[in-house]
Amino acid sequence: MRSTDRDFRNLTLIPELDTTAGRPRILVFDKGKAGGLPLMVIEASGTPAGVETYGPLAGTPAGQRMTADIGRWSRGGLTCRS
Question: What is the mean pLDDT of the chain?
Answer without folding.
Answer: 84
